Predict the 3D structure of the following.
Amino acid sequence: MSMKNAVRDVFGGFWSLLVGLRITLGQFFKPIITVQYPRQTVKIPARFRGHIKLILDPESGLSRCTACNLCARACPSDCIVVEGAKKEGQKTKWVTDYHLDFTTCSLCGLCIEACPFDAIEFSKEYNTVARSRDDFNNMDLVARLAQEREVWAQNRPSQPPTPPASAPVTAVVAAAPAASAAPAAQPQPLEQKLTP
Amino acid sequence: MSAILDFLLGLAWPWTRLLLFLVGICAFVGLNAAYLVLAERKGAARFQRRPGPNEAGYAGWMQPFADGLKLLSKQVLIPPGTDALLYCVAPLMVMAPPLMCLAVVPFGESLVARNLDYGLLFVFSFGSINVMALMLGGWASRNKFSVISSARVVSQNVAYEIPMLLVVITLLMVAGTLDLNEVIRQQTGGFWQWNILRGIWDFRAGHIGANFLMPVTFIIFYTCMLAETNRAPFDMAEAESELVAGAFTEYGGMGFGVFFMAEYANIVLGCSLATILFLGGWQSPFPPVSFLAYFSGPLWGPIWFLAKMYCLVFSVIWVRWTFPRTQFYNLLNLSWKILIPISLFTLLLTGALMKLPLVWRHLF
Ligand code: SF4
Ligand code: SF4
């Protein structure tokens, strides 16, 4: 009896080794899935939460924020400071200063939910590395919006277009509110590659 | 005039030949060691679906040079309290045996540095120095991990030397010679005449082969080769997750590099031996009939040999990246409880089957 078991052990063990070898060889011939980071990047998933940013309105090229301060009040970490001023000939206030203390932000998203004008969203920025925390504890979102506007202005076609799809930045911005609602709709190349 | 020239050439040729083979073998071992490290890393990467080293040169082809430069630029350090002489000699001793053994390995019918009548014996006698070198290196380092590793190396190699030699004896009974080139010559006439299959049924002689368990014998030989070269899953000597780096823990720079290269040189040697003994060495897998005879010319010999050898080397890498390291007692159990009994059985079987025709003739 024990002899029989021993023989079965040997053959069963050897068979399991062959099965293991077949599995690894199968992996050997499958494509490489490593992303060579500085040269390639993965597509950032729709639900990715970078620091919050002001949304650039694709029509006007400005922010939709009216400095109502609801986001600052909703923030549990108290890391938003908004200042606004009335422009010439306009009834509402307009944002002039939007400072975010990213060092204490927990990326909870309450500010985004609180905003009645859809004026802020999570950015897809993941390259947030700096030498000191001063770079993050007082981020000037209005200045960042101004930078974005320059790109937007360059890519804007001369005649006023209805679909602003030609400009990548505006396209992202336009898609963003929908994206948070339907994250699976966007293709995610990395996951696609993982499932054979 | 020409007689003098002939005389001088005759005088110079043996030395030239010696020099050529010396340089050739050193270059072969060096290049193999360097590029098998790369092949190993690339292979490991592929098995894990990574690209592997790909920054140095095109697709990482300069990686061995970068590694070598890095190792060479390091200080040679002899830790205090070590046995300095043994500590320095161990890397030399570990590198020398594979270099020596390759002198009798026939890469082609006439491409062999020195075809000894007792080549196989030569290989095994020098091959066993490897254990000593690892043991001395570990012992001389004065480091507890190294000493544990030394003990493991010895018991592991003793355990696996036995089935390996039993298997080789089985083969010798079939071949009847220790001359490696002769062993290969016997395996001519297509892949079914290679020892691994000829043992089952000898087509040329038209009767049952000397040992129908020859494929099993080959697997035993292969397993023992993995264990003798301290390769995963039998890398108890290195066992980086338990013993830091085992016997080479205290070595740095090129001392470590030599141990590393010797591992690959030993793999090349082991795979060459497996090729010669079981897979027909430089014989072409096709029978030398009609146009297929073209493939068994003297130029094709080394190509077949290297092709078979590198297939085995690939399988060694494949095995390493498939199986986890065994526990030490399992390792010894495998040898003493499974491999040795089976190889003893095949030895007896071979003897019986070889004498069977005699008995047959005697009776009828
Ligand atoms: S994400 Fe949360 S913590 Fe961060 S600013 Fe918005 S409300 Fe505050
Ligand atoms: S971002 Fe939205 S909630 Fe915050 S101040 Fe501007 S409009 Fe109000």
About this structure: Chain B touches chain A through 14 residues (CB under 8 Å). Residues 79-363 of chain B form one domain.
